[in-house]
Amino acid sequence: MGEFRPAKKRVEVSVGESVRILRELQDLSQCQLARMSGIPQPTLSAIENDRVRLGVERAKALARALRCHPAVLVFPGWDVAAEKPAA
pTM higher than 0.85 for the full model? Predict the structure, then answer.
């Protein structure tokens, strides 16, 4: 077997798009996610369309409902290799 080569990033994903992608991958409607997270469906729609900021508390509620780490939602484009250490 050859050496491991990480996949290249192909597209930029916004915070709202990351929420929508995770919701759709779990085959959930906005109404179902609203019930699971306690966040009203119109607010979820606004988040997914990047009209409303996600925020820490909403990120935690959605992460619990979607069974992922909040950072997956808040920092969808984070590239650890490209980051420089804090000085």
Answer: no
Q: What is the pLDDT of residues 23-65, one digit of tens each?
A: 999 999 999 999 999 999 999 999 999 999 999 999 999 999 9
**What CATH number should be reported for the domain whose range is 15-75?**
1.10.260.40
- Three-state secondary-structure class, residue 79: coil
Burial of 65 (0-12, 13-18, 19+ CB in 10 A): buried
- Cα 20 from Cα 83, distance rounded (Å): 26
Using CA atoms, how far apart are residues 57 and 63, in angstroms rounded to an integer? 10
Residue 24 CA to residue 15 CA, distance in Å, equals 14
